[in-house]
Write a structure and sequence with these properties.
single chain; 422 residues; alpha+beta; Aminopeptidase; Alpha-Beta Plaits; 2 domains; 5-stranded antiparallel sheet; binds glyoxylic acid; binds manganese (II) ion
């Protein structure tokens, strides 16, 4: 090992940029008393955050291009003009109750890695690029990892443009309104490799007392919307047996999902109903309609498929139990288990060793842009430990400045080694 190929970034500068970005879309969370972040994709806050970060990319000397899906790429040329870039990055859009780190660490860490290489006067053989992939969260337009999925060719540009938010606004319109409907092709030429640094968003690293996670892959994700059509009726006068109560059926979906998880028949299945709304949503009316989302996660593709089939069968029983009730479903997002590249994982593990950082291998519970880019090139991820059981999608989300800096030390060293240098 030479010290020239071991990169230690400026952790204070990285932290300052994380905190400055967190002020965009910041809100005071009444329930927790904490300051959170709300930067849903392609809102004014998201656009403002992106503009701030693009400014930092330009200050770091990166040539910025925006593609037709609004993906942003900042490029640092390499010594070999024909070589494909080593790509890093993540997302800046957030859920509505976010902290400062989910996605942002990967983008700002990539820029911090570039700043450090600039200061040390190191030229890599392959170019380096830092990407901002938007609507990773999928909470505004209903499909997660959307732009990286388009970049990798899994979702078409037309289908992505036509997606709507809950107010019926299309993604295509919001892209134009915010000025992020760039000219570059939405398809990404296969990079040489992709590495993404992200907070773990779970308790594994903290419980093991380990600083760095070398991510083996991402578990399968299944999102669907379930709409239950019942019949509005008077709460006081309608006999129980004459009701088609969509609210009752929605509650039965929720408890059935939990029973499926607890049964152990679906391996490590996780199930969440994160959105549940009844209509007309009034005290003295039997709900005429219920809308809910079902988020299933499973590392085993076969057991995931079985869980999906059994859920469909359960939904049919709801129609039998309450005559007059009907159920429709719509697939929102579906990805299989994605394994990451052994070679890139080895480079990450070696970089952690060389920095004297303990590491372990783990599968990602959350979805990430890396799982889409993995279809294009050798890909892997670095996880950074989180505090408070790694809680995330919550303003309490927190990783220490030291943990963030260590993750980006490993990222920078990995990028340099993958990109090659003199
Ligand atoms: C992304 O945050 C996900 O839902 O896994
Ligand atoms: Mn994320
Ligand atoms: Mn997230």
């Amino acid at each position: 090992m030479s010290t020239r190929d071991l990169i230690t970034v400026n952790g204070d500068r990285l932290w300052r940029s994380l905190m400055e970005l967190a002020e965009i879309g910041a809100y005071d969370d009444e329930r927790t008393g904490l300051r959170g972040v709300n930067r849903l994709a392609l809102t004014d806050a998201d656009a403002a955050g992106r503009r701030l970060v693009i400014g930092w990319m330009e200050q770091a000397g990166l040539a910025v291009r925006v593609d037709r899906m609004g993906n942003v790429y900042g490029r640092r040329e390499g010594g070999d003009p024909g070589a494909r870039p080593v790509l890093t990055g993540s997302h800046l859009d957030s859920v509505a109750t976010a902290g400062a780190f989910d996605g942002c660490l990967g983008v700002l860490g990539g820029i911090e890695a570039i700043r450090t290489l600039n200061e040390r006067g190191i030229t890599t053989r392959h170019p380096l690029e830092v990407a901002i992939f938007t609507e990773e969260e999928g909470v505004r337009f209903g499909t997660d990892m959307l732009r990286s999925a388009v970049a990798a060719g899994r979702v078409s540009l037309e289908d992505a443009y036509a997606l709507t938010d809950r107010d019926g606004v299309t993604l295509g319109a919001e892209l134009a309104r915010t000025g992020f409907d760039g000219p570059a092709s939405e398809r990404l030429d296969p990079p040489h490799a992709y590495v993404e640094c992200h907070i773990e968003q779970g308790p594994v690293l903290a419980n093991a007392g380990v600083e760095i996670g070398v991510v083996t892959g991402v578990q399968g994700i299944s999102w669907q919307e379930v709409v239950i059509h019942g019949r509005a009726a008077h709460a006081g006068t309608t006999p129980t047996e004459l009701r088609a109560d969509a609210g009752l059926a929605a509650a039965q979906v929720v408890t059935n999902l939990r029973a499926m998880v607890d049964s152990g028949s679906y391996g490590e299945l996780r199930a969440t109903v994160g959105h549940l709304a009844v209509h007309p949503d009034l005290t003295n009316i039997v709900p005429a309609r219920a809308e809910l989302t079902v988020d299933l996660r499973n590392p085993d593709d076969g057991l995931m498929a079985r869980a999906e089939e059994d859920l469909v069968a359960f939904l049919r029983t709801l129609e039998e139990r309450q005559p007059g009730l009907s159920v429709t479903t719509r697939r929102m997002a579906r990805t299989s288990h994605v394994p990451f590249d052994d070679g890139v994982r080895k480079v990450i593990a070696q970089a952690a060793d060389d920095h004297g950082l303990a590491h372990l291998s783990l599968l990602s519970g959350a979805g990430h842009d890396a799982q889409e880019i993995a279809a294009l090139c050798p890909t892997a991820m670095i996880f950074v430990r989180g505090e408070y059981d790694g809680i995330s999608h919550n303003p309490r989300e927190y990783s220490t400045p030291e943990a963030c800096a260590h993750g980006i030390d490993v990222l920078a060293t990995t990028l340099l080694r993958l990109a090659g240098h003199d």
